[in-house]
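Milestone M4 deliverable, item 7.
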Amino acid sequence: QVQLVESGGDLVQPGGSLRLSCAASGIDFRRFAMGWYRQAPGKQRELVATITSGDSTEYADFVKGRFTISRDNAKNTVYLQMNSLKPEDTAVYYCNAKLLWNYWGQGTQVTVSS
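Output delivered:
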């Protein structure tokens, strides 16, 4: 059974930082491309960042220079370090694992507000 479990979401003030984690089980983690997506109320889910099995990364323009995606294959975990958070970063953040199939986590809420 494949499971992706996100954690680390919280309420944070503008300019603050958070680190999200996604622990995977039931997959050969090192073979999968991993990603973070987000969905704000009333909006479609959008790509935030991805990291391939070879550690190549891509970022949405709206997070470049502020967010960093990384992975630890020994821990079957992918991370999203988020700095300089803005109110518009408020959303549910979802972990994604992709090889031939797509798997999703349940999401973790990030709220940026003063």
